[in-house]
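Posting for a labmate who doesn't have an account.
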Amino acid sequence: MVADTHSPHYNTDRGTLWTDQPLRTISLGGQVRPLHHLQAWYNRGVLHVTPVDKFVQLRPKLGHIDQRDKEERESKRQDAMADKTGRAAKAVQISARSTDAAVADLATTSTLLRLVEEEAWTPLGWRAENESDSWHYAESLMTEKKQLCKSLTNEEQYLELLSTVRVDGREPKVNVVKIDG
């Protein structure tokens, strides 16, 4: 089944070629980021707050599509090399120098992808809501004392706090809420 799109950027030939694989496969990956936040919800006019100590933002990993592109380019290159028989090979020397190797190394996409793929996964625990441990933990998070919460961030700062750690390693240093009482 070929996608029906009117986008001028959509490649219909490639869409037809890839209807079976790899576009039916998707992998999600992300980084676990430690947080010191609270999750809150209202129930019958009462604010319930739960601590959130870790956050994962899952994003599609498209390595299988990159691999398919690489295989296609390699196949075309080999076909082109077969057509160029009779030409002599020439030696070429290329050298490059970087002023800051650490920054240049982090800037490459392949390095970033490798770092993401090599990152160790953190196992997450899960308990059914009907287990007594779950109820005891949930009850320990409830309070009878109502407190007024005031946001110390605007919408843009809040979204920045939810984002994963950036390439430059900079982390936001903003308090999210202030509790009076």
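Reply:
Got it, the structure tokens are right above this. The longest strand covers residues 32-43.
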